[in-house]
Amino acid sequence: MKLDRRGATRYYFGAIAEVIDLDQPDELVSLTRDLSLSGCFVMTTTPFPKGTRVRVRIMRSRAEITAIGNVTANVTATGMGIAFTQIEPSDRAILERWLG
Q: Please, which of 32, 35, 39, 91 could form a disulfide with 65 given CB 3.0 to 4.6 Å?
């Protein structure tokens, strides 16, 4: 566990992640590496560019959440950071339960 620059605690959290570019028909399915209440890091060798608006669906243990977000400046050869900008209260409750 480590503290990110925005003050949200990030947890190592392996789960299936489906990420869809909202402005293009591009989609990728991968795994999360880190997860917090404000975003996640998705492992991929083909990250979307910084600023890309995405819908991310994270699935683990027969539960799932969906959030809208933006790809952050944290784009590397191993993946991309996504900051959540919109998440429904029911999805937020599942996220809090996962991280609790």
A: 91
